[in-house]
Amino acid sequence: MADKLMEPEQISASASTPPYSDLPPARLFALRAERLEKLATNHPMGDYLRLLAGLCKVQQQLLDQPPASLLPTPERLAQARTHKMPPLAVDSLVREDGWQPFLDALLERIEAPNDAVAKALDSLRQADAAQRRAWAVSLLDGDYSALDAAVVPFLGAALQAAWSQALLTLPEGSVTDIGSGAHCPCCGSPAMTGVIRHRGKQQGLRYLVCSLCACEWHFVRVKCVHCDSSKDLHYASLESDRHAPDQAPIRAECCPGCQSYFKLLYLDSDPDAEGLSADLASLALDLRMDLEGYQRQAPNLLLAPGG
Question: Is the pTM of this model over 0.70?
């Protein structure tokens, strides 16, 4: 039977409704690398940002020429859709080792600029599949005490490449609103940052950026990402931006209810901003929030948090 025709007002409403979720660009990691290299100039963490820029270039190679795929079978994807579950659910797929070829390929391609990095890479090379799996589960669970901080960026990079590659090859319509809130509707991982868009019908809308697969999904503004409260939220920026906090390209949304904060990127102030690189380059804001008694709950898989 033919589909029911839409009324004119329904067509208009459909045309004006912004997409619930968006895929990352095919050059995701190359764009991150370019942004990190730019941000490294005259930055106190310049060497680290340049190291991660090189790591992102390797991630792009894995995205362009994937050594494997952790994409589930059509039957599992259909089951996930039926039960309103993330199609690339990290809590199950990370234990199935489909991502491990990405780590092997990353370790083959990356060059160590110093002894500390070489030691971390050797640790990953010498670990067996079970140990790598245990480390990956701990990292994605936020249990940083269970693994060496030095291996975090490289393990995290391999996981990101594997999940982003799978996301970009998902059948159309696989990612839908499953009521996941601040967790990614694609893989179930927590959001890393938020982006306030600035163009067209999406101007002023907030999209959250997944810490793992880089999927972006709509989340209403003026609402705590972590506890859903809207009471007494306020915004803070870097010390250098205090003279014009409403114009700062990166701001922390602070919730006194749960004593947490969440970083937001305002594209009207910096159209080229990108979530992961902006987060890493603004660690001074994290330090300020810590001093003011606010806790960070959003992970960045290329950086182990301090003690």
Answer: yes
